[in-house]
Amino acid sequence: MRKIIYQLAEIEQVAQQILPLIQSKIILLQGSMGMGKTTLVKALVKALKIDDVVSSPTFSLVNEYRNSTSVIFHFDFYRIKNEQEALDMGIEEYIYSGNWCFIEWSENIASLLPENVTEIIITPIDSYTRSLTIINPVNS
Asked: Distance between CA atoms of 50 and 66, rounded to whole angstroms?
């Protein structure tokens, strides 16, 4: 487990710092509404050298970002009513594709997730400061 305290203005540097610490391409982003989960995904996508415009997939469930060598899937399961919706959209194919998967509101699909995931938990310290905790898979 690794904890980092940062100012919101430092998010791009934080993404560069945590990328080498992440041990799974399946990343669960935990934090309440407005904590900066999508903002962190934007910074991580940029750190992975992808220039696509990153936005919250709240209504589409998944957004895809790519360059010539990488594909990233960004999920937001805040609005799903049950896990069957995730199965219907093919969540298992995405998760087992070997590509990066950034998943917001993963607690809504908890039983569908493999064990070998990295969790990133974002908690507030004040209006401009966050604590980020990285929890990697036990067997990594």
From this structure: 6
